[in-house]
Design brief:
Elements: E1 3-7, E2 10-12, E3 18-25, E4 32-39, E5 49-56, E6 62-64, E7 72-77, E8 82-87, E9 96-104, H1 108-112, E10 120-121, E11 125-129
Parallel strand pairs: 2-11
Antiparallel strand pairs: 1-3, 3-8, 4-5, 4-9, 5-6, 7-8, 9-10, 9-11
């Protein structure tokens, strides 16, 4: 089974940028749908994780939430079995814990909207946007 480890979170000022990484091990990401989900601050216990950006590794299809489209970019390095989320022009509402998640052969839009079962989550990395 695939294991996911996120990194790259931190404190950034409004308007700044961060690049998150999700390293997969145990299996290659071929035929997986993988994405980034945000859990808002103050909701650490049982809070909803909302899809931000997702990628169908098989066909390259992507899905972005309306609030991040044009600012965030999801990408993959196959050789490193790693998925990235480049976040630009960060705003306070982007803050939270970002989780990497993956499911085998899921429709990317259904996956990002949490309308499919997510089979694996990473441990999360925190993003703080504050001046």
């Amino acid at each position: 089974q695939v294991q996911l480890v996120e990194s790259g979170g931190g404190l950034v000022q409004p308007g700044g940028s961060l690049k998150l990484s999700c390293v997969a091990s145990g299996r290659t990401l071929d035929s997986y749908t993988i994405g980034w989900f945000r859990q808002a601050p103050g909701n650490e216990r049982g809070g909803v994780r909302v899809g931000v950006s997702c990628l169908d590794v098989g066909d390259g299809g992507t899905s972005y939430s309306a609030s991040v489209r044009g600012r965030f970019t999801i990408s993959r390095n196959g050789a490193k079995n790693t998925v990235y989320l480049e976040m630009n022009n960060l705003q306070p509402e982007d803050a939270g814990v970002y989780f990497c998640a993956a499911t085998w052969l899921a429709d990317v839009r259904e996956f990002c909207a949490r309308r499919t079962i997510i089979s694996k989550w990473g441990q999360g990395t925190q993003v703080i946007v504050s001046s």
